[in-house]
Amino acid sequence: DAGVTQSPTHLIKTRGQQVTLRCSPKSGHDTVSWYQQALGQGPQFIFQYYEEEERQRGNFPDRFSGHQFPNYSSELNVNALLLGDSALYLCASTEDGRRDEKLFFGSGTQLSVL
Amino acid sequence: AQSVSQHNHHVILSEAASLELGCNYSYGGTVNLFWYVQYPGQHLQLLLKYFSGDPLVKGIKGFEAEFIKSKFSFNLRKPSVQWSDTAEYFCAVRGTYKYIFGTGTRLKVLA
Fold this sequence. Notes:
The complex is a heterodimer of chains A (114) and B (111).
Chain A: E1 5-7, E2 10-13, E3 19-24, E4 31-37, E5 44-50, E6 53-57, E7 64-68, E8 74-78, E9 87-94, E10 104-105, E11 109-113
Parallel strand pairs in A: 2-11
Antiparallel strand pairs in A: 1-3, 3-8, 4-5, 4-9, 5-6, 7-8, 9-10, 9-11
Chain B: E1 3-5, E2 10-14, E3 19-21, E4 24-26, E5 33-38, E6 45-50, E7 56-58, E8 64-68, E9 73-78, E10 87-94, E11 99-101, E12 105-110
Parallel strand pairs in B: 2-12
Antiparallel strand pairs in B: 1-4, 3-9, 5-6, 5-10, 7-8, 8-9, 10-11, 10-12
């Protein structure tokens, strides 16, 4: 049973560029959340996708956008990259509506913006 | 505002020492609390969770945490740590859809 998979594992971009990160949720999960973890910080919620719609958004600018596909996989897009976007980007999945819901995390994509 | 505070950023212990990591939260609704652990080179994984009922919850690898509502706390404990417990530990509270994490505590256990 595959867990949450993310690609790529590492990425180097320059300021102003655009990046797309990908996530496949754990089998049986239909809800995908994205988190940003800056160095020395805890994960910060970016947004959550369910039924191909953004259900909730954290305090991130519109440069951060996402998408969920019919197979529940998801993409995170960041436009006009800034140095401050350098971080570990985590994808987490869960099964919506479960009383004992817990997040399953992927290993993350380490984004470096130069 | 919803927030989670972890007081200890770095902790160094010798094997067999007892561990207690502090976590305080600020959240107005029904509280669901979690401790996640990230071992070196691995992804975040659930250590234990509190939804309701017995405020003393037990997790994997001998960890436990106590929910004290009056103190808005959910401290993590382990009576005797092992070298393999070296990791980063995150406390979190669940909002409507999002999780709010603390800044984490890096634990190093000396063999």
